[in-house]
Amino acid sequence: NNDGSIASQVRAQPSAGFSICTYTGNGTGGASIGHGLNAAVEFLIVKDRGAVASWHCQHSAIGNTSAIFLNSNSAAVSNGAYWNNTSPTDSVFTVGTADGMNGIDNTYVAYCFAPVANYSHMGSYQGNGSSDGPAVFTGFRPAFILIKASSIAGEDWVILDTSRAPNNVSNLLIKPNTAEQEFTNSAYNTDILSNGFKIRNSNPRFNQSGATYIYYAVAENPFQANGG
């Protein structure tokens, strides 16, 4: 793929809003890489393949001035060296010169996700600190939900899914930034609904008052909309 200033090798499935790209860095801020999706990427994960470096994530709800790290419980960090303060387009994403992003001759892999109606959804919600927490509309029943507190530090990423826990309430968690085994905890109660999900806890990992949470959700039955 030669859409960007750096050539990339791409495996893409635009109908699913997902592609995998590899590229070799050139050390130049503002370098662009083609992703092959024909839609703007809203969730992006970049990893240096040949060095010890963080998993850098860009999410549309955080914006192009910050990154958040899949291997960390930190909050989003603002730094123009991550994405060169540039949002992905329908053909490319842009990287800066931060470590783990675009080192000269370093090799990288990028996992790119674009939203597809009735299939996948990215967004954010604000915590209210109540056991009657926010209801998040996705337009479908999610099979997979990835959630991270983006505005506060110290909270792990969490994954809920309907294969491991098909019935509500859902509170069987795994945390991708740790080596912990899966566990059940009622402090993380969440309902997975026909058109989204509903937070049923006040734990700061899901629902601290005033905190911002980002998410990525994928449908259980793709392309069967539930708008009620």
Elements, N to C (H/E) = EEEEEEEHEEEEEEEEEEHE
Mean of all residue-level pLDDT scores? 95
Would you report the number of β strands?
A: 18
The amount of beta strand, in percent, is 35-45%
Determine the N-to-C terminus distance.
Answer: 41 Å
Describe this structure in a few short sentences:
By secondary structure, the chain is mainly beta. The chain has helices at residues 80-83, 204-207; strands at residues 8-13, 18-24, 31-34, 43-48, 56-59, 66-69, 77-78, 92-95, 107-113, 120-126, 135-137, 142-149, 158-161, 172-173, 183-184, 190-193, 196-199, 212-219. The strands form five sheets. Strands 1-2-9-4-5-6-7 form a seven-stranded antiparallel β-sheet. A four-stranded antiparallel β-sheet has the order 10-18-12-13.
Describe the structure.
Helices cover 4% and strands 38% of the residues. A 7-stranded antiparallel beta sheet has the order 1-2-9-4-5-6-7. It has a 4-stranded antiparallel beta sheet with strand order 10-18-12-13. It has helices at residues 80-83, 204-207; strands at 8-13, 18-24, 31-34, 43-48, 56-59, 66-69, 77-78, 92-95, 107-113, 120-126, 135-137, 142-149, 158-161, 172-173, 183-184, 190-193, 196-199, 212-219. With 228 residues, the protein is mainly beta. The longest helix has 4 residues, at 80-83. The protein contains 2 helices and 18 strands.
